[in-house]
Design goal:
The protein has about 140 residues and is mainly alpha-helical. It contains five helices and four strands; from the N terminus they run αβββαβααα. The strands form two sheets. Strands 1-2 form a two-stranded antiparallel ribbon. The longest helix has 17 residues.
Length: about 140
């Protein structure tokens, strides 16, 4: 559950996409500019194991593309350590029941979500890392 012990689990999203509309490589490019790949403690003001960044891959082709995208980031920032790992997918536990309010939180609680982003310094940090490529929606 969301409120339970998260030890050993990542808080993650499962992405289903149409490769005729967006490629896996494009999804990876979008992912990187939305995270801090150097934070080994979590993301922005969310700290702890479940908030670490990671890319989960389902097959060898995805792993190859994910590793190439990671190497691109490593080369772009030679003086910083990229800590985002590439991991095999495993069981995905979707949010259910009373915890479903977390789904689409940014839409259903837009004022609170915008305040959270601002108070955590998320957008400022992304802009610091990625410049104009940072996504701030």
């Amino acid at each position: 559950t969301y409120r339970g012990n998260h030890k050993g689990h990542y808080e993650a999203v499962e992405v289903t996409y149409d490769p005729s509309k967006v490629s896996y490589k494009e999804l990876l490019d979008y992912y990187w500019v939305n995270i801090d790949p150097f934070d080994a403690q979590g993301q922005f003001c969310d700290k702890g194991f479940s908030y670490l960044s990671a890319i989960f891959v389902a097959n060898n082709k995805e792993r190859e593309l994910a590793e190439a995208s990671r190497q691109k980031v490593v080369k772009q920032f030679p003086k910083q350590k990229v800590v985002t790992p590439i991991l095999n997918t495993s069981i995905f536990y979707p949010i259910k029941g009373e915890e479903s309010y977390h789904q689409d939180y940014y839409k259903n609680n837009s004022v609170r979500y915008k305040y959270y982003r601002w108070s955590c310094g998320r957008d400022q940090r992304l802009k610091e890392i990625w410049g104009d490529r940072a996504i701030s929606k």
